[in-house]
Please model this.
Amino acid sequence: MYDLELKDVELHFGGLVVLNRVSLGVRSGELLALIGPNGAGKTSIFNCISGLYRPSGQIHFLGTSLIGKKPSAIAEMGIGRTFQHAELIPRMNARENLLVARHNHLKATLAEQWFRLPSARREEAEHLAVVNDVLEMLSLTHLAHLPVSGLPFGIQKIIGFGRALVAEPKVLLMDEPSAGLTQEEREELAYHIDAAKKQLGIPMLWIEHDMEMVAAIADRIHVLDYGRSIGDGPPDEVLDNPEVVRAYLGTTQLTQGGADVAAPREEGVTPV
Model:
């Protein structure tokens, strides 16, 4: 049984078919990579799940329908999301950036916090413990006191991933977290994503263009092309599927030295 499941999801913008009867799901402890050429509909799926778009079909999270719910309500249900840009607060250090991400878990009133009442101090200690656990898991403890503005871009990306984890999501949507990273930085990020999945058991749905990274840590791959599903299964099976290879690259090999090579696409407007 899937924690998050889409059934026959369709999305139209005027006469443009963005998603065409897409069905997919992700289970606890599973990392599902969502791949496809630019314009295949990957980010549109995330926007449907997050409540930014209202498609037809069904989207269920732990048995509850998400269609028609506001983005804020969906976030409160435990659906976390990361973006290509880390969205950190530059003047704050790594620990403070992670503490900010705990805001949805705050229970103490402003008065209790202002007067430093025992209940507020206990809650603060609990939040700090969660943050410190995530910092340790991501090997960031020794950098926790440093302003993030002075840290390498690859480290900032890992801190951004940590911000998503301290919110304790029940499912995590990751939108190209490796964008802009060097090969070494991608490998480090991949290690931490895989370790967090195994340690926390969070279902993860992951948009990614780095096929070496996908093949290394994804449990399953779902492939989109022009808004329709053309493949779903284990990485070795999907990446050898001739239809997937043709759609994704228009060649006979899906990876070329670890680099992602875009497939030739027809002129015109395509979904995102």
Summary: The longest helix spans residues 118-137. The two ends are 28 Å apart (CA to CA).
